[in-house]
Write a structure and sequence with these properties.
The chain has 268 residues and is an alpha/beta fold. The protein contains 10 helices and 17 strands. Strand 7 (155-157) and strand 8 (162-164) form a beta hairpin. Helix 3 (32-39) crosses helix 4 and helix 6 (87-98) crosses helix 7.
């Protein structure tokens, strides 16, 4: 066994980095300790390798390790990590989704990095009324874009920087809930397959479903890495949305199911 491991342990740094990148791509998520043991080098060496691969856009550096920069998005990740994943795709989706929103409209946006990109893309809009559970949107959206901005209360999920709770507001503390409605709900989901739209967290799914229920129209936002996948909690069946905004054409089976559900697909 030792003789077989010797060539691997004495690889040149460039060769090790290529092997390291391939290992992260296959695993999806790794720790510094696991990599140091696997490649037979020090933790400091692995950290330097990961830092360089991060700068090159091959992996995304995380606290204590790294994740694949392209795939492996089926589990919850910290917001600072997700902000650096599929960035070009999210910007394309954001521009397309922004075109669906008229000035003066009432909209709901859920948590997520795609809706955060959408908020930034609304800089030329005016007089919007926005309700959201995304705690980052108030700081990211242009002040000139909205007339009123409301944030739903509830428990704060630090990993997503969003609230999880009722889609509701009261006129006074402890008073009756106000019946709220919106023209358009723009909902970023974790996965889309023939069975519908889904996400990894039950509380998030409940909020998304309620936002859809309170909307005249619904646009689902999902980059192409999420198409043809299914996550833990169902948000809604395909037919509950009017539009799917994505960055590439869906796989054939999903495209057929979306057409049967009368969902318009918008791509660049």
């Amino acid at each position: 066994m030792a003789a077989a491991e010797t060539p691997q342990r004495r690889r040149l740094p460039a060769g090790r980095k290529a092997d390291l990148a391939a290992y992260v791509e296959q695993a999806g998520e790794v720790t510094v300790g696991d990599l140091a043991e696997h490649f037979g080098v020090s933790i400091d060496t692995i950290r330097r390798d990961l830092d360089q691969l991060d700068r090159e856009g091959v992996v995304i550096r995380t606290h204590g390790g790294a994740v694949n920069a392209v795939s492996g998005q089926l589990k919850d990740r910290a917001l600072d990590v997700r902000l650096r994943m599929q960035t070009e795709e999210k910007e394309k989706i954001a521009r397309l989704a922004a075109a669906l929103i008229d000035d003066g409209a009432v909209v709901m946006l859920n948590a997520g990095t795609t809706t955060l990109a959408l908020a930034r893309a609304l800089r030329n809009h005016k007089d919007l009324t926005i309700a959201t559970n995304n705690l980052r949107i108030p700081a990211e959206i242009a002040p000139t874009a909205f007339r009123d901005l409301y944030v739903f209360g509830g428990a704060v999920r630090a990993i997503t920087q969003a609230t999880t709770g009722p889609v509701a507001f009261t006129m006074t503390p402890g008073g009756p809930e106000v019946d709220i409605r919106c023209d358009l709900a723009l909902i970023a989901v974790g996965a889309v397959d023939e069975g519908g739209y889904s996400t990894s967290n039950l509380g998030d799914a409940a909020m998304m479903s309620e936002m859809i229920h309170r909307a005249e129209r619904t646009a689902i936002l999902a980059d192409s890495s999420k198409l043809g996948r299914r996550l833990f909690a169902q948000v809604a069946p395909l037919e509950r949305a009017d539009v799917l905004v994505t960055d590439a054409e869906p796989p054939a089976a999903l495209a057929s199911a979306l057409a049967q559900a009368d969902v318009d697909v918008i791509t660049p």
